[in-house]
Amino acid sequence: MKNIPLLDLQAQLATIRGEVLTAVEKVLDSGQYIMGPEVKAFEEEVANYVGVKHAVGVGNGTDALLLALDAAGIGAGDEVITTPFTFFATSEVVSRLGATPVFVDIDPKTYNIDVDQIKAKINEKTKAIIPVHIFGQPANMDEIMELAEKHNLFVLEDAAQAMGSEYKGRKIGSLGHAATYSFFPTKNLGGYGDGGMVVTNDDELASKIRILRVHGSNPKYYHSVLGYNSRLDAIQAAILRIKLRHLDDWNNARRQKAALYNELLKDTPLVTPYAAEDRKHIYHLYIVQAEDRDDLMAYLKEKGISTGVYYPVPLHRQKVYESLGYGEGSIPNAEYMAKRTFALPLYAELSDETIHAIVDTIKTYYNK
Ligand SMILES: *Cc1c(COP(=O)(O)O)cnc(C)c1O
After folding, report:
1. Which long-range contacts (C-beta less than 8 Å, at least 24 apart) are formed by 140-143?
2. Which positions bear N6-(pyridoxal phosphate)lysine (predicted)?
3. What are phi and psi of 190, to 5 degrees?
4. Which pTM was predicted?
5. N or C: which end of the chain has fewer CB within 10 A?
6. Per-residue pLDDT tens for 38-69?
7. CA of 52 to the centre of ligand 1 (A)
8. What is the pLDDT of residues 327-343, one digit of tens each?
9. Which residue ranges form the domains of the chain, and what is each CATH number?
10. Catalytic residue numbers?
11. Is the dihedral of CA 209, 213, 216, 221 positive or negative?
């Protein structure tokens, strides 16, 4: 069997190469390399796609979170409740602003933040909640928004892994007070470099973020606040405009392939992903659970099948957060899942035959 990567960006590029090269050339010939018409057009297209009023392109998904929280006034002394079962950026930005991330446990079925656990941690210092639509599955947004309304909290959806996901028929990103996307190359909508975006229906928040991304200036060279240098690159915007047109097809292909995996893996000891009925999960990653994960992953590697662990250390157990005092066992579901879960190869161009071959290899492992 040929080596099977976890994700094959080259296979995707092959399907859009001509369009991408033409778009890049157009930007090169335009002389508009920072901001300009491609960024503006892409912002409008994303706002339309998500169904919100504003979309603001920034340098990457981490900055999208950072600028959104900064614009919302999160800072020293504030607490922000989030999940520890996510990529580090989600809480890193909270700490960067001088606020404190408060980690609560996840629902072991969806891997998303457990709303009852959020309730237990709300106090007078709590200012915001960051639900992460982890692996492409929407979090319980209705319950989260209800809680936020009651306690007057800012809700920022970290939708880096969930562009195109839906919750009760509505696009993820349109449910919180604001949401952020990452266009890191491996994301479902990924560029060929870094990029990120904040979306919101809040006029004031959007205009603050637009000012923050250009050094806090408005107009140029007149600085009213301390900002950042964080803009979406024009070349990336041009590429992402092309890719956005394919996003639904790619997401649907992922869903079909995930369904095939689910079916074929039924009679193996692996726990396949749970997808809530009222949600459209877009499988940014196809995550399974195995008791003997590390051994199985080593076996698959030997057979040429790449897999990955997302993420090996939950955030509350990271060295940098030692001083927050979360001991081993303090957030049990997240810790348990960090030891059992891993991702199998999944991308739109992955063939059904290859999925069959991967599952056969898994079955051979269990029957050996
Ligand atoms: C990728 C990712 C980010 C950060 O995005 P970058 O563009 O890499 O800065 C933030 N949160 C989550 C959940 C992510 O997966």
Report:
1. 140/112, 140/113, 140/115, 141/167, 141/175, 141/176, 142/167, 142/168, 143/115
2. 187
3. -115, 140
4. 0.98
5. C
6. 999 999 999 999 999 999 999 999 999 999 99
7. 21
8. 999 999 999 999 999 99
9. 9-241 (3.40.640.10), 247-367 (3.90.1150.10)
10. 187
11. negative
